[in-house]
Amino acid sequence: MSLRKFLKAAVFTVSLIIVLPLVALSWMEKALSRSENVFNTFAQLVAIVPGPVGTYLRAAYYYGVLDKCSWETHFGFGSVFTHRGARVSANVSTGMYCIIGHSTIESGVRLASRVSIPSGKRQHLDDSGQMSSGTRYERVALGRNCWVGEGAIIMADVGAGSIVSAGAVVLTDAPAETIVGGNPAKVVKTLNSSQAIQENS
């Protein structure tokens, strides 16, 4: 382990100790009820802590409470996970004010600011397309090394190595190694692996 990674791990450990009471209360809520009020209260609390301290506290809190979350993450100021069922792999980074629901975010994904990932696109409709009194969630998946531009709304899966243009609204699955844009988003360009890496760098 490099010195830099060792220091980062040490700071993360301290951050985890600081948020441990929040993590414990969130786990108690999960064990005793189906509510996510406590989880969301603390998610909103750590979201507004500024600077590097906030970055580490958010990473530590989500490491402790999400279904899966690597410690090697960066969640920008104001960014919030709205459901504990999210799964986040290593080297994921978000900008500021991202709102993320039920999702699987693979390694190397980068979200610009104000990206929204609702829990699917049929939360208040039943199978016949009628309004439902209940809420159902669908998991949205972002493949490895995706890049999502400013203000995009992601309601369907995005394939590995793809780029979602700023302001795009993704309603149908975006294939791997493509650039998609527009509302509703459509494929603008197909990339090969080397182009996808270059576009993302």
Outline the structure in words.
The chain is globular, with a radius of gyration of 17 Å. Helix content is 32%, strand content 20%. Helix 1 packs across helix 3. It contains four helices and 16 strands. The protein has a single domain, classed as Hexapeptide repeat proteins (UDP N-Acetylglucosamine Acyltransferase, domain 1, 3 Solenoid), CATH 2.160.10. It starts with a helix and ends with a helix. It has a seven-stranded mixed sheet with strand order 2-5-8-11-13-15-16.
**Helix and strand pattern:** HHHEEEEEEEEEEEEEEEEH
| Low-pLDDT ranges | none
Helix segment tally? 4
* Number of distinct beta strands: 16
CATH C-level class: Mainly Beta
Helix % is 25-40%
Radius of gyration: 17 Å
Which whole number gives the mean pLDDT?
A: 91
Which class do the helix and strand fractions yield?
alpha/beta
- Shape call: globular
Characterize the biggest β-sheet: 7 strands, mixed
Strand neighbour order, sheet with most strands: 2-5-8-11-13-15-16
Task: Tell me the name of the CATH homologous superfamily.
Answer: Hexapeptide repeat proteins
Rounded to the nearest angstrom, the distance between the terminal CA atoms is 24 Å
CATH-defined fold name? UDP N-Acetylglucosamine Acyltransferase, domain 1
